[in-house]
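Input:
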Amino acid sequence: GENVEQHPSTLSVQEGDSAVIKCTYSDSASNYFPWYKQELGKGPQLIIDIRSNVGEKKDQRIAVTLNKTAKHFSLHITETQPEDSAVYFCAASLVDDKIIFGKGTRLHILP
Amino acid sequence: NAGVMQNPRHLVRRRGQEARLRCSPMKGHSHVYWYRQLPEEGLKFMVYLQKENIIDESGMPKERFSAEFPKEGPSILRIQQVVRGDSAAYFCASSSGQGAEQYFGPGTRLTVT
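Output:
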């Protein structure tokens, strides 16, 4: 079955700098790649997603890139702010909608 | 427009008791998914349901766990004879259809003592 690897597990960046989180997936049939942000005590919140027919997508300070050949996808957050501190999960989905999550990256924004 | 609702938010059960977790999907959504999250880990898929049908239960433990999504009312995840290893956060997500985005509820944190 599908397997999603995510790294780093922890990331600390200075406020205002950029943060990059990288993921790989194993099943070339996966065609949907959402990213979720989870704050302490809350459910995951969908922040951006990309489908396999697109290589890059951007929404304000957040961008996601997808390399289908290498089975890599990445989340880029620019001009980081304190409220970006959270755990971020990448995920991959097959057409039957079962979402497979990575283990998460704990992002700390340093003042 | 209310989001996905789950209750209770916190549930404490003694070993051997039953736990019932409820999920009301977003308005207009007829697809429900249950995931389990252990401390410091990602979410693991458990089961995917549509109204009155289980579509995929490949992530459900074979014993003690069951799920339903009746024609009327919320989806229920039921855990019988709970053990300490069942302690986790259980999240429900809903979507409007196959291939659509999944939106998550706030979760139910189950503690088995």
